[in-house]
Design goal:
Residues 5-117 form the MvdD-like pre-ATP grasp domain. With 287 residues, the protein is α+β, with helices and mostly antiparallel strands. It has helices at 15-26, 89-108, 118-124, 127-136, 150-158, 233-237, 255-268; strands at residues 5-9, 30-33, 44-50, 53-60, 63-66, 72-75, 113-115, 144-147, 163-166, 172-175, 178-181, 185-187, 201-205, 211-218, 223-229, 247-251, 272-279, 285-286. It contains seven helices and 18 strands. It has a five-stranded antiparallel β-sheet with strand order 16-15-14-17-18. A four-stranded parallel β-sheet has the order 2-1-6-7, covered by helices on one side. Helix 2 (89-108) links the parallel strand 6 and strand 7. The protein is globular and about 60 Å long.
Length: 287
């Protein structure tokens, strides 16, 4: 048995997971994949509870792994389970919940290192929590308001260089049988009306910037950064708008920013983080 076995809890076509898997393999680490979409048509599990936890085996198209061999789990977004087409919708819902909580509890009970732990990742999905944690960790954060009060939203949008709207969670919407992405969008105060009362909305100060920087930070101290440049106004507002206009270059990270990134990971219990910063013309950055 290899001294180290890493379970890749990810889709096998996930580029980032493949990169990590290849790097681990080159270092002599045994890597075993489990794509949740394989269950239940292409994967099976049998585990028994002992005095020190669960023991058993998961069998997948990529091979078999015993639970007690797993020393670390690299976790990416889970894919939907695959169940027989003969199942009714109530049966499918029941099977999905049972598999989700069964596998979730089984994997999270393992005495293994997680990158990163699903429970910590779930907590970190809340954008208001992200923003408050960033502020506490020393990041420069733009003025922000979370509200369903139209008057407060209009007043905020009239201040400074104006405001932008950002979704707090669901960046994708389905409309007219089309999937659309919600981009960071400038807000005209005159268009803010009583529709704001229907739910919470996040508005932020519109920070004029020269370019963006994406920083990848690991819990063991590694920091890597890429500057993202564009001459397209829409892409400068939100670089997801026009990937075809972007250019990239490796850049450095100021020591105080790197320190804040590590403090952020520690505060939320994460082993890996991807941070997006905007850099203003005077060289200052904001998260």
């Amino acid at each position: 048995m290899s001294a180290q076995t890493v379970l890749m809890l990810a889709e096998q076509e996930d580029g980032e997971a493949v990169y990590v898997s290849n790097a681990l393999t080159m270092r002599g680490v045994r890597v075993v994949w489990f794509d949740t979409a394989w269950f239940s048509s292409r994967a099976s599990v049998s585990a028994r509870l002992g005095c020190d936890g669960w023991h058993g085996e998961i069998t997948t198209p990529d091979g078999a792994v015993r639970l007690e061999e797993v020393t670390a789990v690299y976790y990416r977004q889970s894919q939907p389970f695959t169940f027989p087409g003969t199942m009714s919708e109530p049966e499918r819902r029941f099977a999905t919940v049972e598999a989700r909580f069964g596998f979730g509890g089984l994997f999270m009970s393992l005495p293994a290192c997680w990158v990163s732990h699903p429970a910590r990742l779930a907590d970190a999905e809340y954008r208001p929590l992200q923003m408050a944690t960033a502020a506490r960790c020393g990041f420069t954060t733009p003025a922000s308001i979370l509200t369903n009060h139209p008057g407060d939203a209009r007043d905020f949008a009239r201040s400074g260089d104006g405001a932008v709207y950002k979704a707090t969670m669901h960046k994708l919407i389905s409309e007219d049988d089309r999937v659309k992405l919600i981009y960071t969008t400038p807000v005209d105060p005159a268009t803010i009306d009583d529709r704001v009362t229907t739910t919470l909305h996040l508005f932020q100060a519109n920070v004029p910037k020269s370019h963006d920087v994406r920083v990848v930070v690991t819990g063991n101290g590694h920091v890597h950064a890429i500057a993202i440049h564009t001459d397209d106004p829409a892409a400068r507002q939100d670089f997801r708008n026009r990937y075809d206009t972007l250019t990239y270059e490796i850049t450095s990270v100021p020591r105080d920013v790197a320190h804040s990134c590590h403090a952020y990971l520690k505060a939320l219990g994460l082993e890996l983080g991807v941070f997006d910063f905007c850099v203003t013309d005077d060289g200052h950055g904001g998260s």
